């Protein structure tokens, strides 16, 4: 679990996870596209995310595809969120999203 | 073949044989899979079905069976009228020994365009895999949440 928190404690790595969340199964080239990071930096961040099991990779033909692996994040949630809180938390999250949308 | 939609990985402190049993045993699956039991003889071509509360929720056919390394079956969510009309998707499990644990990779692919099954199952897998890891490592599944279908 330390690896997961260390991997998440970096805005660039969270941005890479956001990109995979928006579109799963991207190549390194896809992920670098439009990012203000060098290819080497992205490679290094992906290695840290993969070591923390937050990113999973598969070979698809000649391409290496990167996937957001939400299993460790789910385990963090299960550790501190109780069964009956889940619905209320989802409602609060939705409320926050709606209200902040309106501010924009 | 289009690229996989989902790839999930979890490392479980167990043996490939125990994990294979956990993925294929009717009574054991029911304990961690939020009440779903899987039934099949797990030979290639054999039917596979997932039952919950006496009702079949998902159906498929075993496509590949190489215990305790690789298991693959087709998947149709039959509990929903629209989803049961969709062509079957495919679930593949890869079990690889890794530093005293087993790396379990679950790939779910082959969804139809605009599949209704896809968003439905995407929230289910992390829950099922977390629960599977928990039951094998601690003897306890995660808390059963009856609001979920599978």
List the helices and strands and how they pair.
The complex is a heterodimer of chains A (104) and B (150).
Chain A: H1 2-8, H2 11-22, H3 28-32, H4 39-51, E1 55-60, E2 63-68, H5 71-80, H6 86-103
Antiparallel strand pairs in A: 1-2
Helix pairs in contact in A: 1-4
Chain B: E1 6-12, H1 16-24, H2 26-32, E2 36-39, E3 47-52, E4 55-66, E5 70-77, E6 89-98, E7 101-109, H3 117-122, H4 124-138
Antiparallel strand pairs in B: 1-7, 2-3, 3-4, 4-5, 5-6, 6-7
Structural account:
The complex is a heterodimer of chains A (104) and B (150). The radius of gyration of chain A is 16 Å and the shape is globular. In chain A, strand 1 (55-60) and strand 2 form a beta hairpin. Chain A has 104 residues and is mainly alpha-helical. Chain A has helices spanning 2-8, 11-22, 28-32, 39-51, 71-80, 86-103, and strands at residues 55-60, 63-68. Chain A contains six helices and two strands, in the order ααααββαα. In chain A, helix 1 (2-8) packs antiparallel against helix 4 (39-51). The relative contact order of chain A is 0.14. Chain A has a two-stranded antiparallel ribbon. The model of chain A has no long low-confidence stretch (mean pLDDT 89). Chain A has one domain: Arc Repressor Mutant, subunit A (Orthogonal Bundle), CATH 1.10.10.10. By secondary structure, chain B is α+β, with helices and mostly antiparallel strands. Chain B has one domain (6-138): Alpha-D-Glucose-1,6-Bisphosphate, Chain A, domain 4 (2-Layer Sandwich), CATH 3.30.530. Chain B is built from four helices and seven strands, in the order βααββββββαα. Chain B has helices at residues 16-24, 26-32, 117-122, 124-138, and strands at 6-12, 36-39, 47-52, 55-66, 70-77, 89-98, 101-109. In chain B, strands 1-7-6-5-4-3-2 form a seven-stranded antiparallel β-sheet. In chain B, strand 4 and strand 5 (70-77) form a beta hairpin. In chain B, 33% of the residues are buried. Chain A binds chain B through residues 24-25, 53, 56-58, 60, 63, 65, 67, 69-75, 78, 83, 86, and chain B through 3-11, 105, 107, 126-127, 129-130, 133-134, 142-143, 145. Chain B: InterPro entries: ASHA1/2-like_C, START-like_dom_sf. Chain B: Belongs to the AHA1 family. Chain B: This is SRPBCC family protein. Chain B: Residues 13-137 form the Activator of Hsp90 ATPase homologue 1/2-like C-terminal domain. Chain B: It comes from Rhodopseudomonas palustris.
């Amino acid at each position: 679990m330390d690896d997961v928190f260390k991997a998440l404690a970096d805005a660039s790595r969270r941005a890479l996870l956001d990109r995979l969340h928006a579109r799963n199964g991207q190549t390194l080239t896809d992920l670098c596209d439009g990012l203000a990071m060098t290819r080497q930096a992205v490679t290094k961040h992906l290695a840290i995310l993969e070591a923390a099991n937050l990113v999973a990779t598969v070979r698809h033909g000649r391409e290496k595809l990167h996937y957001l692996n939400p299993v460790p994040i789910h385990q963090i949630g299960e550790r501190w969120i109780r069964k009956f809180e889940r619905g209320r938390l989802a409602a609060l999250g939705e409320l926050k999203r709606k209200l902040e949308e309106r501010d924009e | 073949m289009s690229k996989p939609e989902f790839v999930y990985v979890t490392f479980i402190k167990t043996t490939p044989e125990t994990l294979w049993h956990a993925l294929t045993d009717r009574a054991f699956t029911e304990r961690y899979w939020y009440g779903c039991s899987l039934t099949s003889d797990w030979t290639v071509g054999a039917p596979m079905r997932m039952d919950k509360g006496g009702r079949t929720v998902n159906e498929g056919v075993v496509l590949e069976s190489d215990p305790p390394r690789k298991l693959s079956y087709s998947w149709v969510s039959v509990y929903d009228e629209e989803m049961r009309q969709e062509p079957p998707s495919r679930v593949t499990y890869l079990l690889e020994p890794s530093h005293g644990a087993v790396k379990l990779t679950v790939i779910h692919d082959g969804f139809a365009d605009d599949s209704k099954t896809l968003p439905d199952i995407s929230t289910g897998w992390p829950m099922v895999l977390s629960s599977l890891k928990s039951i094998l490592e601690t003897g306890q599944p995660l808390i059963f949440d009856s609001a979920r279908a599978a």
